[in-house]
Amino acid sequence: MRITEMTVPGAYRVEPEPLSDRRGHFFESVRAGALLGASGWEFTVRQVNYSVSRRNTLRGIHGTKVPPGQAKFVTCVRGSALDIAVDLRVGSPTFGHYDVTLQSPGTGTAVYLPDGVGHAFLALTDDTCMSYLCSQEYVPGTMIDIDALDPELALPWDLKEPPIRSDKDAAAPTLAEAAAAGLLPTWEQCPPRMLAAVPGGL
């Protein structure tokens, strides 16, 4: 697999290398050691989530307060999605910057998002299913919500019609409003790499 850092520091795009034969194909989605070597963070799965969305559904931008934090390994397992990672770390040299990944089961491309990096996606087909491997169990009251249509972020959704959103997502603050209200983690709380990585596993 190929693991490359995004333009949002500490976030990684993971691209498998399928092995094909007459039955179809097989690929390793991720190896713990390879992800640790690339990112510097040990990633242990403590919760697994799935979302299923209609075409033109826009979910996010979602993050988690630190502590407790919640790093994510996100993959599209059915359908297709335009996936965007956004730097939410106040004080980061790339605060508010984003990176885009087109996800579909055919490629197996996934994204690893550390603490402090928000996640959003637009479902490009009906019945789009996203898998989330999470480093921490969800703690009620710790989610960070940012408006995915924040005009200052200007995320490239290329919408042809108003998206389907939850009431909570539609009412979320802009990035500037969330920062002013002290809702966001800081760069110091969420450095892109550990100074000394410890061996461990997914």
List keywords for this structure.
disordered C terminus; 3 helices; 9% helix; five-stranded antiparallel beta sheet; 202 residues; six-stranded antiparallel beta sheet; mainly beta; globular
Strands, helices and their partners?
Blueprint: E1 2-5, E2 12-15, E3 19-21, E4 24-26, H1 32-39, E5 47-53, E6 58-64, E7 72-78, E8 81-87, E9 98-103, E10 110-113, E11 117-123, E12 128-134, E13 143-145, H2 167-170, H3 175-180
Antiparallel strand pairs: 1-2, 2-10, 3-4, 5-12, 6-11, 6-13, 7-10, 7-12, 8-9, 8-11
What can you tell me about this protein's structure?
This protein is mostly beta strands and 202 residues long. Helix content is 9%, strand content 34%. The protein contains three helices and 13 strands; from the N terminus they run ββββαβββββββββαα. The longest helix has 8 residues. Belongs to the dTDP-4-dehydrorhamnose 3,5-epimerase family.
Tell me the fraction of residues in β-strands, as a range.
25-35%
Helix content range of the residues, please?
Answer: under 10%
> Count the strands?
13
Distance, first to last CA: 15 Å
| Chain-averaged pLDDT | 94
Output the number of helix runs: 3
| Element-by-element helix/strand order | EEEEHEEEEEEEEEHH
Please state how the strands of the largest beta sheet are arranged side by side. Answer: 1-2-10-7-12-5
Query: What would you report as the Rg, rounded to the nearest angstrom?
Result: 16 Å
**Would you tell me the structural class of the helices and strands?**
mainly beta
Shape: globular
* Largest sheet features: 6 strands, antiparallel
Given as residue ranges, the uncertain stretches (5+ residues, pLDDT < 50) are: 195-201
